[in-house]
Amino acid sequence: MMITQTKNNGTGRGSLLADVKALLSGREVDVLRALAPEAIRALDATRHVHCPLPYHLDEHPSFRWDCNKQCFHCTCGSYDLFAYLQKANCWEFSETLSRVAGHLGVTNGNPKQPEDDPLETVCQQKRIPLDAAKLFGARTERQTVVVPQYDSRGEQCSTTTISPWGTKKQRKGLNAAGKPAGMHLPHNPDGKVRLPQAGESWFLVESFKCAAALHQLGFLVAGMNGKQIKKEYARLFFGCVVTIVHHLDKPGVSGAKKSAERLYGTVSAVRIARMQGETKDKEGTDVRDVLAGRDGERIVHQAIEDAAAWTPGGEECVLK
Ligand SMILES: [Zn+2]
Questions:
Q1: What is the pTM for the complete model shown?
Q2: From the CA of 51, how far away is ligand 1's center (Å)?
Q3: For residue 2, how far is its CA from the centre of ligand 1 (angstroms)?
Q4: CATH second-level architecture of 119-313?
Q5: What is the average pLDDT across 282-310?
Q6: Ramachandran class of 115: left when φ > 0, alpha when ψ lies in -120 to 50, beta otherwise
Q7: Residues within 5 Å of ion ligand 1, judged at the Cβ atom
C-alpha cells in the first residue's frame, strides 16, 4: 500500500524540515500524543480502533498504528505523522511543519531554541498544566527543569531534572546522582511543601508528571519515584485515605498492590483505582493519557469513585 508521505515541496523550508525530521526520529509517538490526542487510542492499542479521521465513518475498527513504519494504516489510507496531522486538522503542510517544529522546540536553522522556556516546553511535551507543574516546585535551571523530591519526613532530599531538548532519558527525567530518590509533593502558596494531614484524602501516582496532571482535577496528589511507594513513606500518610492510581500495565498493577500492602494499617484506608482499558505488559496508559483523550475527566473520576478498598486478605469492599 502507498503511504502518504511528507514531501518537501516548498522553498525555504528545507533546513527546517531537515532539523525537524532529525529531532523527530524516535519521538513520533510523543509528538502524536501531544498534537493528536484523538489518535492516542490507536497508539496504545494492539488492535484496530475506529478511525479518528473526520471524513471516515469507520463502523468496523480499521485504524491502527504501525510502530515499525511509524505510520497509521486504515482502509481509508496510510499516513505518516505529517500526513495524518494534515488530514485530521485540515492543515496545510507548512502549518503542520511549524506545529511539529514548535512542539520539538525547533526554529528555522536553530534546533535548540534557547528563547523557549524549558518549563513551558516540558509542560507542553508532557501534557501537564504549567500551574500544576509550578505547584510541585518545578523551576527552570539553565536549559532544564528541576523538580524537588522529598524524603519520608517531608525534607527535600533530591531533585528530578528534565531536559526538554535532551536524549530520551533526559526528556523523561533523571534523579540527581548519588542522592536518595524521594517523592514529589505539592507546595503551599508560600512555596513550602504541603504535607499530608490525618483525615485527608490523598492520591498516589507513579511520577511528578501524573501527579501534576491529576492535581488539575482538584485532588491532593503525591508522585512516587517509580511503581511503588517505599515502606518508610507510609508514616507520611498516617490517618489519610490513600487512593493509588496506577498505569495500565503489569508493573503498575503489581506496584499498586505492593504500595497498598506497605500503606495498610498506617493509613486509615487504602484503595486502588483502575482506569478503564487494557492492561499492557509495559508502558501502559497513564492518567495523563486518559485525561488527554475523549471523556478523560469522566473516566478518571469514575475509576476513583469505583476504587475498592484494599485489604491484606484480598477481600475487597467498596468504601463509601
Ligand atoms: Zn480511516
A1: 0.65
A2: 4
A3: 14
A4: 3-Layer(aba) Sandwich (3.40)
A5: 90
A6: alpha
A7: 51, 53, 56, 74, 76
